[in-house]
Amino acid sequence: MLKNNLGFPRIGSHRQLKKACESYWSGKTSLSELIEVGKKIRIENWKLQRELGIDLIPSNDFSFYDHVLDHSLMFGVIPQRFEVLKHLPEADQYFAMARGYQQNGFDLKAMEMTKWFDTNYHYIVPEFTRFQTFKLNADKIISEFREAKNEGIITKSVIIGPVSYLLLGKEKEEGFDKLSLLDRLLPVYCDLIARLVNEGAEWIQFDEPFLALDINYQTKDALRVVYQTIRKEFPALKILLATYFDGLQDNILAAVNLPICALHLDLVRCPEQLEEVLPKIPEDFTLSLGLIDGRNIWKTDYQKVIPIVEKAIKTLGTHRVMLAPSCSLIHTPCNLENETKISAEIKDWLAFAQQKLIEITEIYEVVVNQKIECLTKNQASIQRRQTSTLIHKPHVKTRVAEVKSSDLNRKSSFLERQIVQKDILNLPLFPTTTIGSFPQTDEIRAIRAKFKKGEISVVQYNEFIKLHTQKVVVWQEELGFDVLVHGEFERNDMVEYFGELLSGFVFSENGWVQSYGSRCVKPPIIFGDIERKTAMTVEWSKYAQSLTQKPMKGMLTGPITILQWSFVRDDQPRSSTMMQIAWAIRDEVVDLEKAGIKIIQIDEAALREGLPLRQTKRAAYLKNAIDAFRISASGVQDETQIHTHMCYSEFNDIIENIAEMDADVITIETSRSQMELLEAFAKFNYPNEIGPGVYDIHSPRVPSVEEMEVLLLKAMEVLPAQNLWVNPDCGLKTRKWPETQQALRNMIEAAHRVRERVTEFA
């Protein structure tokens, strides 16, 4: 029985990759130094997995920015606009595709970025044209295979399957289907496989996550063609096909009839699929059991998963069963041993990536070698968590259970509220604002670190934050913003900040997970019932509002996003935890209104991210998510304007649900997609106000006035001018001040130009 791992965190246990990339981008270190950091991380990861007893150790799961972008480079899928950078080192071309490029007379927009299925990981979207060609560049995957081989490790190369790779991309021209490119792409895959086999590869893992989604016959047939072709050309190759994030369901027959050697199932997200799959498994077909949660950080209950292993063994035999995490472990932190400040009681309940691999080995030892002591130790931890007095608060559960209709609804309709709000706020056409945060400089981070270490007093810290807040308020007024923000300098993270002020949360020191590129997040851990202990943002918002006569937005993170961007307790339904957070946010919204804040933004950047991959599961999630938002937002009077913000979301299939949120203003990402996302709002005749992002903050590139003006004019083609706001597409925390200042100056100027044009036309 083989122990199989699908992927391991690539950022390094102390974010070495993030630091190395950012140092290289800023010109402080060389490309060779960056490459060496990557190599060191890879070798450490491979050796660690070998030491922990993993049999199938992955390679090509490492990336300097994004694994989907790596595949685009590997297959020559480079947008035409980047051809002018051929004179640069390949790494600089690669980073330009991810981040944009604005130097040496060039001004190239970054490729689009969107969420990886229902995770908070963002991938770079491949761009396909009708006459797309493919050309193999296997240097990265081959060199990494050789690196591991030199360490005495024959790895299992991880490759996105050709069907899923095409489906992850976007047609940049009308009138063709990206799957029609398969005939051109498949020979390149075969060339790649030939090179890996020639290097000594025995296993190759093809990730085809779309098999866990609702797919049509055309897609199923494409999968059949792909793997029949590969099997015909490489009859001795051991192919492991990996699915994850949901069950196969109606795709079971399509999967088990493929000519592969092993099939991986996510038995955490969909444990019931094993019953359906087992009777249909062909002879000599191996099943990889995804038993260990690759998306969360709780210890696995061996008593629950061992019967699953034994059931599979009874049908297939020990040699036809693999033990594995449910998906790649890039969605979990590296090593729990790096945590020194989590209480011993709670730490006893947790498992990070390294510990999850230990769990695989221990389950193997219990099942194969009858090492009952592993089971006994595990069950003691599980029992301690179940009986802990830290977790449950009856009064919190009672409040969630007693929701009334009035808790879910504003007092008046949007059209009635809009009249009141326009009269009170007196904003011009195309009001300008930002999403909330401003750059967090090294100086701010250093002061926060000193405060947390007790090296400066709370008075000193608050005075420092007040000074920066005052500066940014004055700067926004000078620039001409219509609605201001306080900059959020007191906040370390849009979720962690609130979690630290709510009960039921605990925080890691080094629990970093990659979000995109060099951007890492440290998700809070929700272990118990949640309530607001004290006001969280009111004093900072009051202070900022006292500095200006213009409206100052109160800035909050919404219940769905706090839930999605945390490691959530698994001992009660996620919807129950979401509602607990909603009531805590509602209390804060009401207090902000009492403090005189007229505009309150409740960010729901992750609403789409939480949408189940299967259509049949979506209605229940959307009802819970919309109810949670409405609970958080509906405690205020008509004159208080509620904003929300959503990141990188395709809205076409959930636009009615977005409207049901009944936010007065929604701000969304539209700059990388050139306003394409607005079509859904236009077709639906979305009634409320919208701020389509005209400035991509995920790139250091500064868009011109003309570029943003064009985007606003595009927005006006599909939406009423009186309902449009002007803003960046996300918060500015991760950007540098010089680029931020210039981009926002250009944005304000673009708004003024369009405002004048509309006035002249009228």
UniProtKB/TrEMBL annotation:
Where's the active site on this chain? 698
Kindly list the positions annotated as binding Zn(2+) 1.
645, 647, 669, 730
Entry cofactors: Zn(2+)
GO terms in the biological process aspect are:
L-methionine biosynthetic process; methylation
GO MF terms held by the record: 5-methyltetrahydropteroyltriglutamate-homocysteine S-methyltransferase activity; zinc ion binding
Q: Which PANTHER family match?
A: 5-METHYLTETRAHYDROPTEROYLTRIGLUTAMATE--HOMOCYSTEINE METHYLTRANSFERASE
- Protein name, UniProt field: 5-methyltetrahydropteroyltriglutamate--homocysteine methyltransferase
Q: Which gene encodes it?
A: metE
